[in-house]
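Quick log. Single chain, no ligands specified.
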Amino acid sequence: MLSQTNNKFDALVRLSHRGLILALTLVALLGGSAFMLTMFPESAAADVAGFAMKLLPVAIVIGVAALRPTKEKLPGLSSPQMKAILKDELRQLSLRKAYRNGLIAVLILQPLLMLLMTFVPAAYPLALMASMTVTIGVVVALASLLWYDR
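-> predicted structure:
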């Protein structure tokens, strides 16, 4: 019985990690597309980014469908196992470290973006700075969480 509980616990942790990887991929895709659309709006790369944005809902549906377990029935999000995963002290520590890394990345990014906007003219500089700030902060936080919570 204990082995079966541990297997479900491990399966929930793997499901959580796959969800984080999906979120990281989607945020990176959104950020890259936003960069191309705001930095080079009339280029062929912006056209490709615009087309990728039209396919984003399909990618989200495919990603969420891939997250669903096929072989085994896992407990729900309100189950005691999932609550134990979310309240785990090591996971909470990993979350705090990931948030810290995301904040540090955003703070370091601001002067770099200012220099970029000074030397490289962008079509929409404020939109570029805002989208890159959000993208880099979230990507660093998610990647850090995946790194610390392995």
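The two ends are 25 Å apart (CA to CA).
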